[in-house]
């Protein structure tokens, strides 16, 4: 387990940002202590940045965020490939820890380890606010919930807040994957708001 994610209760927050800013996240423990921060790794050209402001911004765009300690030590890279099929969670050196593979867009994702073996799945509710993480046998290992922040915040900003409860003990690498599920689901399902 990544020591930084040892808490069984996590809060993942995406601060409000301007329309052409990069994706950013804060990971806190249940007491509000900052554990990690994540920021988008790729530089966007001006045209691509403005394209995200206007209707038509797509959840098909590739995005990657680097998760670091508050001191800047790299922890993980979460890499959503172009399209809706695959999101990889990697070590900073490039080794794959796990992969979210779309089985049903917006509804179900299969989790594979670095050797491509199925180790779990994520089931998504209809409003895309609750994410149940299960192991390969179907046993629940975590529940991630997107909190409702009000209509204006939901429609006009990218400010999202998630809570994650992990039902320890959960073996690695599924434990680390469960801890970053909120960021993966946000990149896949909620970062395509048409007005940011």
Task: Tell me what you see in this structure.
- With 196 residues, the chain is mainly beta.
- It has a single domain (3-190), classed as Beta Barrel (Porin), CATH 2.40.160.
- It contains four helices and twelve strands.
- The protein has helices at 46-51, 151-156, 174-179, 181-190, and strands at 9-14, 24-29, 34-40, 63-68, 74-80, 86-90, 96-104, 108-113, 118-124, 130-135, 140-147, 160-166.
- A twelve-stranded antiparallel beta barrel has the order 1-2-3-4-5-6-7-8-9-10-11-12.
- Strand 7 (96-104) and strand 8 (108-113) form a beta hairpin.
- The radius of gyration is 16 Å and the shape is globular.
- Residues 43-57 have low confidence and may be disordered.
In brief:
This protein has 196 residues and is mainly β. Helices cover 14% and strands 41% of the residues. A hairpin with a 5-residue loop joins β9 and β10 (130-135).
Approximate shape: globular
| Total beta strand runs | 12
For CATH, the homologous superfamily is named as: LURP1-related
- Please tell me the CATH architecture by its name: Beta Barrel
Poorly predicted runs are: 43-57
**Largest sheet data:** 12 strands, antiparallel, barrel
Q: Using the coordinates above, name the CATH class.
A: Mainly Beta
CATH topology label: Porin
Features:
globular; Porin; 196 residues; mainly beta
Element layout with pairings:
Elements: E1 9-14, E2 24-29, E3 34-40, H1 46-51, E4 63-68, E5 74-80, E6 86-90, E7 96-104, E8 108-113, E9 118-124, E10 130-135, E11 140-147, H2 151-156, E12 160-166, H3 174-179, H4 181-190
Antiparallel strand pairs: 1-2, 1-12, 2-3, 3-4, 4-5, 5-6, 6-7, 7-8, 8-9, 9-10, 10-11, 11-12
């Amino acid at each position: 387990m990544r020591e930084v994610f040892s808490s069984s209760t996590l809060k993942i927050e995406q601060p409000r940002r301007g329309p052409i800013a990069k994706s950013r996240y804060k990971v806190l423990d249940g007491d509000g202590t900052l554990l990690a921060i994540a920021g988008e790794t790729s530089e966007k050209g001006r045209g691509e940045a403005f394209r995200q402001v206007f209707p038509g911004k797509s959840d098909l765009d590739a995005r990657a965020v680097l998760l670091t300690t508050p001191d800047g030590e790299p922890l993980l890279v979460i890499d959503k490939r172009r399209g809706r099929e695959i999101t990889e969670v990697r070590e900073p050196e490039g080794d794959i820890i796990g992969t979210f593979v779309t089985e049903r867009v917006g509804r179900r994702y299969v989790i594979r380890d670095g050797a491509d073996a199925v180790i779990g799945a994520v089931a998504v509710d209809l409003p895309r606010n609750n994410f149940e993480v299960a192991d390969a046998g179907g046993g629940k290992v975590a529940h991630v919930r997107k909190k409702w922040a009000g209509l204006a915040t939901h429609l006009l900003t990218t400010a999202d807040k998630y809570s994650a409860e992990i039902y320890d003990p959960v073996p690695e690498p599924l434990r680390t994957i469960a801890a970053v599920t909120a960021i993966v689901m946000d990149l896949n399902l909620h970062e395509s708001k048409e007005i940011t």
